Amino acid sequence: MMLQTTRARILIVDDERSIRELLEIFLKKEGFDVVVAATGAEGLARAKATEFDLIISDIRMPDITGIDLLRDLRTTANFTGQFILLTAFATAETAIQALKMGAFDYILKTENFIEELKLVVYSAIENRRLREENTYLRREFRKQHGMGNLIGKSRSMQELFKMIELVSSTTSTVLITGESGTGKELVAKAIHLNSPRADESFVSVNCGAFTETLLESELFGYVKGSFTGAAANKKGLFEVADKGTIFLDEIGDTGLAMQVKLLRVLQERTIRRVGGSDEIPVDVRIIAATNRDLPAMVAENEFREDLFYRISVFPIELPPLRHRPDDIPLLANFFLSRLNATMGRRIERLSDDALKKLEAYQWPGNVRELENAMERAFILETSAELSALHLPESVSNGNRHRAVADLPPEGFDLEAYVESVQKSYLQEALRRTNGVQVKAAELLGMSYRSFRHYMQKYDVS
To answer: Cα(70)–Cα(48) distance, rounded to whole angstroms?
Structure first.
């Protein structure tokens, strides 16, 4: 009884006419589309011109060996089908070489090899079908979920989704800018998940969280004995991210010396471990992000102009939450659903009053602040409706910031006002985190280095 699977296309490459005819008759009876080639060169030409699910090739042929044919197709023609090698002269060395090159199997031309070949052919076709199915399912999953937790129906968010889709398929370096809490890392992850590198590593590093020396060893690794405590060689994050994506968050917080090293990686695509001399090639897509004004920093000689142009090949600016108020109810309900799932409780809805207060607030901390506010209210709420009573005081009392319409006729000291607002937020963040500065910095969506800078500037203790 003939097994019926999908009508796969098979190419037979063998310089022996009798073998070609035997395989062609057998495989056609099994229901496959079959094409034959009498030489390795003919097989190579046919395989490059037409997509085949499976190629069955003899190893020893006068012009091109089966292993050379496999190597050429894998490296130059992006061949993704299965490959079975046949031979009458078996050696362990050629078998190992064939499997290393990506052959599905290696079969001896014995007296009854057709029966063995039949099992291997069906196994190879089924394996390819499963791979294609998995690829399709991953692609569909990414279509539905590839934007991660990026939520929005506003025009600015729809434009953002289009930009992510466009740049994901490229290898271009991306610079994501925007205020703290707008979701820069989420955008970076969405680009990675929708790119050809999605199955490889996504490595994130906050450049502002390390001193210059520590950041260098984190990014580039180090060799044994390069400094006290370097007991063994260690890979850096660029090596860990090889073939994948590295996300350099808060790149504006790096010093000029580190900027030179990053520029070199972008130019040469190699890294050198701390204390080492070897150049290590890395194939990494770089996505950088900052909440700082890099062009202004360039003008002040605080950021290298050449590095700025290298990282901003494709700039993406994220809109602050106050510029997309239509998205606030959508985000609030998304966070409510997620909290219900993670906390094991059930709060059905937001009260009308709570929703009005959320929409009226200006959200200086953007989406991160909204998420924190929802979590706090969720923990305090005991009923099935999330009440405005449990929202943070700043949200319940309305926006603390002076509206443009409130500008008095005589004017006021804007700089002093901004400093007072910043100082009050620093103090409040420290109060909420019991004086833990790292957590307070996270609460405000800034790097620890920036947080320390403002503490010293405003004499906050």
So the answer is: 12
Burial of 411 (0-12, 13-18, 19+ CB in 10 A): exposed
* Residue whose tokens read 């539905």: 144
Q: What pLDDT score does 205 carry?
A: 95
Tokens of 325: 């108020």
Q: 167 CB contacts (<8 Å, ≥6 apart)?
A: 174, 191, 314, 316
Handedness of CA 447, 452, 458, 461 (dihedral sign): positive
Q: Where are the domains of the chain?
A: 9-139, 157-319, 321-401, 411-461
Phi, psi of 84 (to 5 degrees): -120, 130
Cβ–Cβ under 8 Å, residues 394 and 429: no
CA angle 39, 45, 46 (to 5 degrees): 90
Domains 9-139 and 411-461 share a fold: no
Q: What is the pLDDT of residue 291?
A: 92
d(CA 361, CA 275): 52
- In angstroms, how far is CA 105 from the centroid of its own chain? 34
11 neighbors 69 (Cβ within 8 angstroms): no
CB 337 within 8 A of CB 303: no
Which class is 157-319 in CATH?
Answer: alpha beta
Distance CA 24, CA 189 (A): 48
Q: What is the pTM of this model?
A: 0.59
Query: Which residues lie closer than 8 Å to 30 by C-beta, 6 or more apart?
Result: 2, 3, 118, 121
The CATH superfamily label for domain 411-461 reads: Homeodomain-like (1.10.10.60)
Cα angle 263, 269, 275; round to 5? 80
CA distance 82 to 63: 22
Fold of 9-139: Rossmann fold (3.40.50)
pLDDT (tens digit per residue) in 183-227: 999 999 999 998 999 989 999 999 988 998 899 999 999 998 888
Phi and psi for 249 in degrees, rounded to 5?
-80, 150
The pLDDT assigned to 308 comes to 97
pLDDT, residue 409, reads 63
**CATH node for 321-401:** 1.10.8.60
Q: Are 232 and 224 spatial neighbours (Cβ–Cβ below 8 Å)?
A: yes
pLDDT reading at 21 higher than 90: yes
Distance CA 103, CA 85 (A): 7
